[in-house]
């Protein structure tokens, strides 16, 4: 296996001033990438801004002999971040959508501001950066994109309706972009990480936060951004040195006769079979998903 290198590759890492993004930026910079270190420098809850967050990381990459430029825009102005890459380095090869905030509240206490801010930073921000980079990647027939989801989106998490909505939404975006980008050599994947950071220190004991180092997530992200990687459309859970891939699982399901009709009572009677995961399927495309539905439509009378 060849070394994972990023020589002459230009990478945007959003939210790279802290936590996970910072570790990606430092390691990609050390492995030859020209890095756009984006960070608004606000609080973990989305207030304020501070240029120092991005500047510190740029200085560290440069001190180690790498190339980097700071960008202080919010990801909601993603076109400006891509413009920084174009103006400074002349192209864009890799986007790591990583910037994030939290506004945890149980649903009955959630305000429109909590909902909108989470949507804006995670979903609209990732959309704006990716949408601005996309034509350049298509044009040059090369691109690698990472979206950052969360187990909260995959499984749900108490007090995080807004965050869970955004995080699973990103995986939906990623899966579709993987289809649209494949023939242009633009590969798109999603990670659901766990790492100690200022986002998790509010909900985890300090010793766990310290042990869950962001450096344990970094190798997967660099592997997926490698030019030798052909992975696309994947969803990976990662943290503490463990990496696994996630896929959808669906029961064999139950067929009802649409000619004879069927009732809620029939559904009740078949409930055990509908929910029985024995010999379950793993549809990987919308065509595979639709197959039993279309077959039931065409079932002989
Ligand atoms: P962090 O708070 O250490 O870093 C996030 C960075 O994003 C901060 O530097 C912040 O200034 C920046 N940022 C926030 N809003 C921004 C905006 N509008 N524009 C540009 N930059 C902005 O957090 P951490 O833990 O490193 O999180 C990184 C990503 O991983 C986030 O998307 C988060 O939701 C996700 N994640 C993290 C988990 C964890 O266990 N740490 C778990 C699941 C997901």
Task: Walk me through what this model shows.
It is a single chain. The protein folds into two domains: 10-246, Rossmann fold, CATH 3.40.50; 247-301, Helix Hairpins, CATH 1.10.287.4290. Strands 3-2-1-4-5-6-7-8 form an eight-stranded mixed β-sheet, with helices on both faces. Helix 1 (19-30) runs parallel beside helix 2 (52-63) and helix 1 (19-30) packs across helix 8 (218-225). It has 301 residues and is α/β, with parallel strands linked by helices. The protein starts with 9 loop residues before the first strand and ends with a helix. The chain has eleven helices and eight strands. Bound molecules: 1,4-dihydronicotinamide adenine dinucleotide (NAI). 1,4-dihydronicotinamide adenine dinucleotide binds at residues 14-15, 17-21, 38-42, 44, 53, 74-75, 98-101, 121, 125, 148, 150, 193-195, 197-200. 1,4-dihydronicotinamide adenine dinucleotide binds next to helix 1 and helix 4.
In CATH, the topology of the largest domain is named Rossmann fold
- What is the H-and-E element order? EHEHEHEHEHHEHHEEHHH
Say which CATH homologous superfamily of the largest domain is assigned.
NAD(P)-binding Rossmann-like Domain
Helix content: 40-55%
Instruction: Give the overall shape.
Output: globular
CATH class of the largest domain: Alpha Beta
Low-confidence stretches: none
Counting DSSP E segments of at least 2 residues, the number of strands comes to 8
Calculate the terminal CA-CA distance, rounded to whole Å.
Answer: 56 Å
| Strand percent estimate | 5-15%
> What is the total domain count?
2
């Amino acid at each position: 296996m060849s070394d994972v290198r990023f020589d002459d590759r230009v990478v945007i890492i959003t939210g790279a001033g802290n936590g996970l993004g910072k570790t990606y930026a430092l390691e990609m910079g050390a492995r030859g990438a020209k890095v756009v270190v984006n960070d608004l420098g606000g609080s973990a809850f989305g207030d304020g801004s501070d240029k120092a967050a991005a500047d510190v990381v740029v200085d560290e990459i440069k001190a180690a002999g790498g190339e980097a430029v700071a960008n202080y825009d919010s990801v909601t102005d993603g076109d400006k971040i891509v413009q920084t890459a174009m103006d400074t380095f002349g192209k864009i090869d890799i986007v790591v959508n990583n910037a994030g905030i939290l506004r945890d509240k149980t649903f009955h206490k959630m305000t429109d501001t909590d909902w909108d801010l989470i949507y804006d930073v995670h979903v609209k921000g990732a959309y704006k950066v990716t949408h601005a980079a996309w034509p350049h990647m298509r044009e040059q027939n090369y691109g690698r994109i990472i979206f950052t989801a969360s187990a909260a989106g995959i499984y749900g998490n108490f007090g995080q309706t807004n965050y869970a909505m955004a995080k699973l939404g990103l995986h939906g975006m990623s899966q579709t972009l993987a289809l649209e980008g494949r023939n242009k050599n633009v590969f798109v994947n999603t990670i659901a990480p766990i790492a100690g950071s200022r986002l998790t220190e509010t909900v985890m004991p300090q010793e766990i936060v310290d042990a869950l180092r962001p450096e344990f997530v970094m190798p997967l992200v660099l592997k997926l951004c490698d030019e030798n990687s052909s992975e696309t459309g994947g969803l990976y859970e990662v943290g503490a040195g463990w990496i696994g891939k996630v896929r959808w699982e669906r029961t064999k399901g139950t067929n009802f006769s649409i000619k004879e009709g069927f009732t809620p009572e029939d559904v009740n009677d078949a409930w055990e079979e509908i929910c029985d995961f024995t010999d379950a399927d793993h549809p990987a495309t919308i065509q595979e998903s639709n197959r039993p539905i279309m077959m039931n439509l065409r079932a002989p009378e």
